[in-house]
Amino acid sequence: MLILILIIASLLYGGLVYYIGWRGFRWLRPESSSRRFKILYSLIVILASSSLIVGRMSGLTIINIVGAYWMACFYLLLLLVPLAHITVIILRLTRLPRHRTQKWAGFITMGLVVFFLAYGTYNAYSPVVRNYDIKMEKGSSTLDSLHIAMAADTHFGLLSGKNHAERLVKELNAIHPDIILLPGDLFDDDIQPFLDQKIDQTLSKLDAPYGVYASLGNHDKHDGTMQELIKALEKGGITILYDEKVDVQGQFTLIGRKDRTDRNRLPLDSLMEGVNLAKPTILLEHQPYELEIAQQEGVDLMVSGHTHGGQVFPGNLITDAIYENDWGYFRKEQMQSIVTCGFGFWGPPIRIGTRSEIVSIQVQFE
Known about the structure:
Elements (H helix, E strand, L loop, with lengths): L1 H27 L6 H24 L2 H31 L6 H28 L2 E9 L8 E6 L11 H13 L4 E5 L8 H5 L2 H5 L8 E4 L10 H9 L4 E2 L3 E5 L3 E5 L11 H4 L9 E4 L6 H6 L4 E4 L10 H8 L5 E5 L2 E5 L17 E9 L1
Parallel strand pairs: 1-12, 2-3, 3-4, 4-5, 7-8, 8-9, 9-11
Antiparallel strand pairs: 2-12, 6-7, 10-11
């Protein structure tokens, strides 16, 4: 079954690449199209379209980077080329010269690709602070307020590297939180770039009186053991809650779950055993599923990421259809859910329709 899906996906991808490549050839070809130009153009398209797969298989840095930017270009071309093609067909009904309309459609398409690449890159690397003010029953806690800073989906790796990690530390420390929560996908499938760039040393500069806590997501994995991965993060002063809970200075309880892709993760009711529900309970759950269960188990605040808010339009339409809360604030009786669209990115280093963010949550206890 898996092989059949891979074959179908490969054929579909190949067909789309051929369509975009053919339209590009029609636009770029010289008046007297030579065999050499055809061969060179075909070779560039084949190398670019295979760079993502070759990069993942080979592990070569430069090919991985080319593959990531190819994904960005391919996605934009997939949206813009059919639109340009349809426009050219419609303009054929007018008296405008066919050759000229085709050339201008090509120029405009490439101009839009360059614009959206620049705009999307800016959104990906220029974070904003998203603010939420919420109220929560404090029970027997003596706290009157709690300032939570949250960031998820940093995807530290080749393109979300040390500079982006330094940006994260600067932005989080600048809002002076009481506690910092990182609900998953700190790595981008590979621990090595994280270690090579010594990002753990950068993250060790995060500062919050109650500490820095994280749960793990579906991309937090590598070829070694999970303990090696957790150790790499904890070298940066981050406490990993791996299906674990902790009582924070007798004021509130933090629970961090394994990702839902982990077959060995405990059900939430098991994790909630022994939790003092007379005090606030905060859950780090990477993927924002099962809000109903969290509400029934007495969770007061659930912080999540994973969705990226769709990352690139119209992906937000898909995430909105899948998740009860795909981005932002949502309340279900006493349980409040806040989902961030993420500080980093997955795949193409662009964001269109979303922007890199950290989340500031001001909690007032009643």
